[in-house]
Please model this.
Amino acid sequence: LVKNICMVDQVGRLIVAVVKGEDRASTSRVSKALNIERPRLANEKEVLEGTGYPAGGVPSFGFEAIFLVDPRVTELEYVYTGGGSPNSLVKIKIEDLLRLNRGKIVRVRK
Model:
């Protein structure tokens, strides 16, 4: 299982940190990876407006954002990610996920 932590930078860009379900995302690591000021967590309205999906159901691909994928996620063959609602998931191969979201592999977990 992976979770997608949505953040917003100072100019309003959406950033999605993809981490394993048991991990937490670090805003300071995200800021260092992108060489920006520390982003803030997106609120529910910003998540819905930026992704088209409600918080809790956001997939790891399929919308415009900067995707940062933690290396621990890439150790898996498949992952389950948000499926568009808080009650659904999508199973996807890691290589397909990376191809679809064009994510940068960088440590973003705490």
